[in-house]
């Protein structure tokens, strides 16, 4: 399994934020209208980025959003897991996780940076099988991503 390091924390959907931040909201709204499309419908199609919605990650995202609003230059680093937040179910008394495949259609706001692949040690995971439990995968490969 490959985990990716992201160069920005996400805060939900990014289409409208990007248009506002680039000063293109009115121009984009007009262009979409002239094409016979509805901007609100397009915005609803966009997936929410499955990268966390609480705790320190959310605090960091709000901090970066505030700095962007104030025009302060900054970088944020976080973990960009390909399946994001998981959906939880309880089956037979056990927690069962289902992946949130938020990247199934890709993300137009980011670019992979494979030249920045590095090993990341995170102490592994537990694997159950054949009546025994093992500690495996003590390293993953992190790849840099640039996002706007």
From TrEMBL:
Q: Which EC main class describes this enzyme?
A: transferase
Q: Could you tell me which Pfam families the record lists for this protein?
A: Phosphorylase
**Which EC number(s) are documented for this chain?**
2.4.1.1
Gene3D superfamilies, alphabetized: Glycogen Phosphorylase B (3.40.50.2000)
User: Which family does the similarity line name?
Assistant: Belongs to the glycogen phosphorylase family.
What does the protein in this record do? Allosteric enzyme that catalyzes the rate-limiting step in glycogen catabolism, the phosphorolytic cleavage of glycogen to produce glucose-1-phosphate, and plays a central role in maintaining cellular and organismal glucose homeostasis.
Protein name, entry field: Alpha-1,4 glucan phosphorylase
Source organism per UniProt:
Notechis scutatus
**Gene responsible for this protein:** LOC113430463
